[in-house]
């Protein structure tokens, strides 16, 4: 009945004054137990004889006050901490044990870790370092055998001394190669034979995307095997991850349609024959890929090469990399590009050209049905009278195109505005 008295508002006073109240400690514990208030006793251990501490812990765990036991564990005396940990796990408080296992001094970490994994409590993985397990590879085996293989990479981060290659080998041996492939970003310094194994299981794409997880001793052998398995397009997409590749791979990739990939990652190859590369690309109509790295093709004369690109209909990239074509006549080049259907490049990179009359170029673009390119990059043609351009486009029946870029223009004359309104009404 004493817990129902007014002093129940501060039940710790009952404990401190039990002798005055004539209450045996056993009866106090039983009363708190019946009312499921054992958490209070766990906080008042300094006022409770240590011979009762085990009983307090036991009854607290039984009444779902396990958290109070753990949070005050250092104040208990004479407890069998192994029993406490196991009992808490039995009472579905395993996550609590995992998070605070550093409080369980002297308890065998391996046994508790395995027990937690066997019970399906993954929190143990996040707090792995608290279990002080000497054989980290043993822990990997426990995870794989316990159905937590997908969580293995979480353990890799906490165990810098782990042999990642051995871990990957073990997982593949247990038919978990899909997890290795999926979590390659978590692995480091993998041996090249792991890459070969993954490719045998058709995981070329994730492998090539994470080559930085491997210590590649022979990139050529790796690429050879990937191509043998039909992965040449995957190789092309991840050339940025590779270095020291034989020139023969550049040829193979270009022939498979990966010319842009080769040129974007030209430093991935050694001993390239640039004359051969040029012939291969030009034969495929992909000469424009050369332009970005024109300086590497020492045998080419820039002006003559520009002529070839335009004649073959792939001159669109010339304007973007105009500075590489030293000595070329900009006016003549602009005329030829517009005539060849590459007016967009002229409009977009107009400021890179020298000596051009913007009014003349604007007229050329409109006459070549490239008026939309002119409007899209109108900021490059600020010297051109907007009313003049708009009038000319309306006369050609391009008023609908102008409507898309109306916000680029301001202070239109009344005459031009009326022309736009009239053109809109006709449509």
Plain-language structure description:
The protein is mainly alpha-helical and 427 residues long. The protein has a domain at 329-427. The chain has 29 helices and no strands. The radius of gyration is 38 Å and the shape is elongated.
Quick gist of this model?
This protein is mostly helical and 427 residues long. The protein has a domain at 329-427. Helices cover 54% and strands 0% of the residues.
The span between the termini is 94 Å
What is the helix tally? 29
H/E element order: HHHHHHHHHHHHHHHHHHHHHHHHHHHHH
- Oligomer designation: single chain
Approximately what portion of the residues adopt beta-strand conformation? Answer: under 5%
- Number-wise, the strands total 0
Global shape: elongated
| Main beta sheet | none
The gyration radius over C-alpha positions equals: 38 Å
Class by alpha and beta content: mainly alpha
Low-confidence runs: 5-9
Helix content: 40-55%
Instruction: State mean pLDDT (0 to 100 scale).
Output: 88
Helices and strands in order:
Layout: H1 12-16, H2 18-21, H3 25-34, H4 38-42, H5 53-62, H6 66-71, H7 81-90, H8 94-99, H9 109-118, H10 123-126, H11 136-145, H12 152-158, H13 164-173, H14 177-182, H15 192-200, H16 204-209, H17 219-228, H18 232-237, H19 247-255, H20 259-264, H21 274-283, H22 302-311, H23 330-339, H24 343-348, H25 358-367, H26 371-376, H27 386-395, H28 399-403, H29 414-426
Helix pairs in contact: 19-21, 27-29
